[in-house]
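Step 1: inspect the first sequence and its C-alpha cells.
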Amino acid sequence: MRAIWKGAVSFGLVNVPVRLYSATENHDVQFRQVHRTDGGRIKYKRFCTKDGEEVAYDDIAKGYETEDGAMIVLTDEDMAELPTRSSKEISVEKFVPEDQIDPMLLDKSYYLEPDKAATKPYVLLREALEAQGRMAIVTVSIRTRMTMAVLRVREGVIVMQTMLWPDEIRAADFANIEDQDLSEREMSMARMLIDELAGDYDPDEYEDDYAQAVEALVRAKVEGGEVQAVEEDEEESGEVVDLLAALARSVEKAKASRGEAPAPAKASAKKAPAKKAAAKSTTKKTAAKKTAAKKTAAKQAAATKSTAKKSAAKKKAS
C-alpha cells in the first residue's frame, strides 16, 4: 500500500508520527457507455443551457443553487476566502465509550501506521483504547477541509474513520409506525425463528456473485473473440478504463508471449519508426546536398580571387 497522508496523532503531550493508508477499496463493477454497433465510447460536451454554446473548462465556475432555485456564481476569490485547514495533526478531542458512536455516523476508513521511532507511543495509545473500551474523537484535515473522525482498534491496528456531521444524517420522516398488539404466540414464533438462524458473522461465507458473474461473462466474450478495438484518446492512454479493456489487454499480452501475431492496431503502430527513419534519411540527403553546394561555391570564390591576383600581377610587371 502507498501512504496517502503523513502527520501525527496528538493527545496531551504525546505526539505519534503516523502514515495514513486507505483501509477499503470499491470492487463495484463499472461499465462504460459505448456505441452498440462498434464499441466506441460515448462522450458528452459541456454546453450552457442559456445560450446553447459549448463552454471551455477554463470558463466553468462553481455555482450554488438556493432553495428557491436561484443560482449564485462563486468566483475563485470567493472560494479562497473560505476557511481551510492544512494541518498535519490528528488532534484528540476526547475519549468516549464505544457504544456512544452511532455506526451511521462512520464514513471512510483509514489505517494508521507509526514511524519506526514512534512505535512505543502508538502501542501505548492502542492498548489504552482497548483496555478502556473507548474511542478517540479527533479532528483532522484531509484535502484542506477539517472533519471529525474516531480512532479505534481493529486487529492490533489503529483505524481512523471519518465521521459525517450530525446534520448529514437524515431523519426517518415518513409516516409513524404505530404499535401493534402482538400475541404471545406470535412473539414466541419470532423468537424461535431468530434462534434458528442465530450464529456468528463469518465474512468468508459471503461473496459478490454479481461481480463474479460479470467477470465470467466478459472472459467468455474475450475468449470467443467478441472484442471491439477502440482507439484510446491521448488523455486516457494510461488509464485502465474497465474490466473488458483490462481483460482484452491481458489476452494480447498472452498472445505476444506465445509468439503469436499482434493485433492490427499494434502492427500499424510499429510502422511509425520506419517513417521516422525515412524522414531522417531524407534530412541527411538534403543536408549533404547543401554541404556540397557550399563547397562548390567556396571553390568558385577561391578561383575568382586567384584570377584577380594574377591580372593585378601582370599589370604591375608591364
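Step 2: inspect the second sequence and its C-alpha cells, then contrast the two.
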Amino acid sequence: MTASPPPGRFGPGSFQLVLLRRMADFRPELAEAARLRLGASLAEQREANKRWQAMVRSPRSRGALARYRSVLGPPESVSARTIGDLECEALLWPVPLWPDLRFEVLAGPDGAVWNEWLVRAPGAPGPVLEGPQDLRPWSATVDEVARAFAPVRPMEGTAPTRWRLAFAARGRPCVAEFTYGLLQRVLVDGVEADPPGPPQH
C-alpha cells in the first residue's frame, strides 16, 4: 500500500487524490480502489481537493508552474520541446499510482503552463491498440490513442481537465474520453463500450 499523505502537507500523495477525484466522475470503482491503495479516506480526498482548489484560485498564487514545483518537488526531467513554431519546456514528475506514467507540464518561456496531463514514461512500453476492444480504462494516454487511430479529430472536453478524440477504429466511429490525459471510456457507435479493467500493476 502506498503511504497516505502526511497531515498538514500537500504533496504528491495529496495531488494524486485530486487526480482521482476528477477520474471518479467516469470510473468511480477504479478511483475508489486507487484511493484505498493510497490509504486515504473520502474525507481526506475531499480535503485534498478543497486545498488544491484554494491554491489554484488564490490571488497570491505564484502561477501554475511554481505550484506544481511546490507540490510535486523537483521534476524528474526537464527537456526542450518544439510545438509548431513555439519553444517550451516539458517537465515530468513520477506518479506512484501509475508507475509507467508521468505527469507532464508544458511551460512557455515566460513560465506560463500550456498543458498539464499524464503521459507514458520515457522507455515504458505502451499498450497495443488495434481496435475498440483494446481501449481499456486507464490503459492509454491521449497521445497513444491519437497515434494508434490517426487521423483523429479533437473535440471540446466537458471540463478543463478533460479531452475527447473522435476517430474510426475498424470502420466503427469512436469517441474516446480522457481525464488528465488518461483514457476513461470509449463510445463506439454512440454507445459506451464495456471493456475489462486496466492492467494490474
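Step 3: confirm your contrast with the notes below.
The longest strand covers residues 86-94. Residues 157 and 163 are 5 Å apart (CA to CA).
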